[in-house]
Amino acid sequence: MHLIIVVFFLKVLPLTVVGNHFDNHSAIHLGLKVETGLLQEKKLKVVAFGNSITATRKTIRQVYAQRLPKILAKSGLTAEVINAGVPGSHTGSVSDHSLFKIQHGRDRINSDVLAHHPDLVIVGFGTNDAHIDGEDPEGPSRIPVKDYEMNLTSMIRKFQENGIKIILLAPNPLGDKFPDYQNDRLILYVNTVRALSRKYQTGLVDNFKLFMEYPKNAGIPMDDLLLDGIHPNDLGHQLIAGALGNEIIRIIN
């Protein structure tokens, strides 16, 4: 009589991806342990949505959005960061203020954010909204602060309805080349960002506070963080990216 041995081979199927999430994503959140090597790390998809402070620049080695993946990798988080910064952009539409004839924040919500199905969006507007064109300290801002609040609120609600986590990025202060009344107006917009973050329980990186406090502690003038009195230089972007990295880790846990 011959002994017949039958060997069954179990085929291990690779993990499949549904949207941005792996098929064992729910298991992780349920606290189930998955053996090392069988679990592919989830990639966090982030959209940086804003103006020229967010957009890439030839005179900057890396803006904050470009620095974030490396910073987050140090915490074991793989991230794809999509830069949706547009120079000149405010929160409204071109019909609200048409100095820059481009698609502005309200016009770009679907195409520049929702179309990417991100896990998290960084919303950074306000410098262009607050700006006073002219030399009258009481002159109008490009986007009135009440409209700015309405536009940001609309964005926040839209993103939260789609299950997207949010970090609001408050504008940084303007440098010494600008008259004081520009920063006096800008702080109204910064305070609006702070209040909306509290109201809607979003993440917050307060660049105004960061750029005021860091130079005092480092013993340098604030303009050492800026290219031209408005836009952060590489050191400024390094500070923003570091603060954002900490805030991202905090809100996704």
UniProtKB/TrEMBL annotation:
Superkingdom in the source lineage: Bacteria
Limits of the SGNH hydrolase-type esterase domain: 48-239
Pfam name, any one: Lipase_GDSL_2
SUPFAM superfamilies, per database record: SGNH hydrolase (SSF52266)
Name of protein: GDSL-type esterase/lipase family protein
Classification of source organism: Bacteria, Pseudomonadati, Bacteroidota, Cytophagia, Cytophagales
